[in-house]
Write a structure and sequence with these properties.
Elements lengths: L1 E8 L7 E8 L4 E5 L6 H8 L7 E6 L2 E2 L5 H5 L2 E4 L10 H6 L14 H13 L15 H14 L4 E5 L7 H16 L3 E5 L3 H7 L2 E6 L2 E6 L1 H7 L1 H6 L1 E7 L5 E7 L1
Parallel strand pairs: 3-8, 3-9, 6-7, 7-8
Antiparallel strand pairs: 1-2, 1-4, 4-5, 9-10, 11-12
Helix pairs in contact: 4-5
């Protein structure tokens, strides 16, 4: 389990996050929701050790992550960041980068590394693109290749910042199903999502942030019933049941 304990963090000015405490539990998908600029991506950056908090600490299995080596941490948590450079390599080579934490010296990929990369590409629907340069892929294909790299890292904690970017609706739903499956396998999956209906549909827990503070955490039904989404987003929320008995959420402007 990953725990963020009383995190205050920012970029030199007023704090972007203020005294946020939140746990990411194995076996559950946690979605971070909130208006633009509320601190969701900053929270993931702190969790991924890309920036140090001004106050507080991040723990994995009770260990302060600041005390871990880069390789030790990379075996515990993988990050799919919101924005990334476009490397001049093939898709297969990029996915293999997810195996770096497990390489010794000299850095040579083992049969296990290549098999982990192959399985990750199959899981994200990009098998067959191993030899294609990243520059030749569509935005959606690139997004799925980066996700495959994170999966190949094979960590107990998976941090995904807006993973549905560039994906059409069918592949967004497919990704949501994949994250639920990963959670069923025992991983703690954390996602930043802007689509509230998708967030409420796929999450086990939703954490709502506003102005750098945690407003509420709970199951999707609890979050919907609490009215916190209407307050934070200034929208009107409606819940309907589909013909298949599934719960869907609709939002309209006040």
């Amino acid at each position: 389990m990953m725990e963020l304990c009383h995190i205050t963090a920012g970029y030199g000015g007023p704090p972007v996050l203020r005294d946020v405490s939140l746990a990411f539990e194995p076996g559950k998908v946690t979605v971070l929701a909130g208006p633009n600029g509320c601190g969701k991506s900053t929270l993931l950056r702190v969790a991924a050790r890309l920036m140090a908090p001004e106050r507080g600490e991040v723990r994995i299995e009770g260990q302060d992550v600041s005390r871990l080596s880069a390789k030790q941490f990379a075996r515990l948590a993988a990050l799919l960041p919101q924005s990334r450079p476009l490397p001049g390599i093939t898709a297969g080579s990029l996915v293999l980068h997810g195996r770096f934490p497990y390489l010794g010296y000299p850095r040579r990929y083992s049969r296990e590394d290549r098999e982990a990369a192959r399985q990750a590409m199959e899981r994200t629907g990009v098998a067959g693109l191993e030899g294609v340069p990243m520059a030749h892929l569509s935005g959606g294909q690139r997004q799925k290749v980066y996700l495959a790299m994170a999966l190949a890292q094979d960590t107990p904690v998976l941090l995904l910042d807006e993973p549905t970017t560039f994906l059409d609706i069918a592949h967004q739903l497919e990704l949501a199903e994949t994250t639920r499956t990963l959670a069923e396998e025992g991983k703690a999956v954390v996602m930043v999502l802007h689509d509230l209906n998708l967030a409420l549909s796929c999450a086990h827990r939703v954490a709502v942030l506003e102005e750098g503070q945690l407003r509420r955490v709970g199951a999707p039904e609890e979050i919907y019933a609490s009215g916190v989404l209407e307050k934070v987003f200034q929208v009107r929320a409606h819940s309907v049941e589909t013909a298949k008995g599934e719960r869907q959420y609709l939002f309209s402007r006040l």
